[in-house]
Specification:
352 residues; alpha/beta; Rossmann fold; 2 domains; seven-stranded parallel beta sheet; six-stranded parallel beta sheet; elongated
Length: 352
Amino acid sequence: MNIGIDGNEANTKNKVGVSQYAYHVLSKLHQLDKKNNYFIYLKNPPNPDMPQANSRWQYIVFGPQKFWTLFALPLKLFSQKIKLDLFYSPHHYLPLFCPCPSIVTIHDIGYLQFKDQFTPKDFYQLKNWTQKSISKSNHIIAVSNFTKDEIIKTYHIKPTKISIAYNGVTPPTKINSPQISIKKPYFLYVGTLKPNKNIPHLITSFSKALTLQRSNAPIFLIIAGKKGWLYDDIFAQVKKLKLQKKVIFTGFITENDKWYLYKNAIATVIPSLYEGFGIPAIESQSVGTPVVASTIPVFKEILGNSAILTNNLVQSLSSPIDKKYSKLGLLNSQKFTWTNTAKSILEVFAKY
C-alpha cells in the first residue's frame, strides 16, 4: 500500500504539542512498518532528525509555501505519477481535495469553547479547516475518548468513523546537567503560555500556598514553555503579586532540560481548563514525579487515581505530596508509548 503523509508538523526545529506528536508518529511508523510504502510531503527539505529516506520511505519537497495545504498539496497529489492508496495528516488539516481515502488526527476542539482566546484569523482557520477535514475524511483518529466524544457531539459523526490512538511518551535513558540555571525546590509547569492552560490561576494559588508554609524554606514555581498567545495576563499576575523572585520563566527549553526539570520537581502542576490529552502529565509520571492536575474529563480518563486531581491548588501546593503518587504515576505512564500510538494508527490504515 502507498501511504502519503503531510510531514510538515514533524519537520520543525522546536517541537511542541502537535509537532511532537507528528514527529514521534512518523518515527515509529518508519521503524515498525516494513510492509507499506510511505511518501512524506514537505514544504521544506527534511531536517536531519527526520527518519532516514529509503526504498519504502521517500520525501517529496515542493512549493509554493503559501497556501500549501489548500492548493499546492492537492495539485501535487492529483498531478504526480505516484498513485496513493491512502493519505494521512497527523494534525487537523487535510488537503482541500484528495484523490484517495484520507485519515486525519484531531487532537482537540477546545478552540470552539475558547474562541475569544484566539485571533480572528487563527480561530477562522482552526474552526473551518478542522470542520472541512472532519467532514471530508474517511476516518478520524482521536487522541482520547474525551476528544472522540467531543467530535461526535459537535459534528454529529458516527462513532464507528473515529478510532482512538492515545499519545505516548519516551523518557530519555540519560538526563544530563541542564543548560539553564535551576533554583530548588520547585513546582513545575510545562507547556505553551496560552489562556486555556489557566496559568494565572496557578500563580495565584502558588502565592497563597506560600503564605501557608510551615517553614521559611525557599520554594519556587518554574514555568517552562514558549509564549503562545494572550499571555500578558500571566506576567502581569506575577508582577501584581510581587513574585518576580519566586516564579521563574524559562522560555522554550531543550528536550534534556525539560526532562531534568521533570525529574527534579516536587510535582508537575497542570491547572488546564481544557485539554485533548495532556502529554506533560504522562511525561512527568514517566520519570516518577507526581502530578497535580485539574479535574477536567480527560485527566480523569488518562490519569485516574494515579495523580492528585483537584481544583484546590492552594491545598495541594501547601501540603506534602504523598509518595504513593510517584509509584502510581510511573505505572500509569507505561500504558502510553509512541509504539502503541503507531500500532493503533496502523490498525486504522489496514482497513483501507
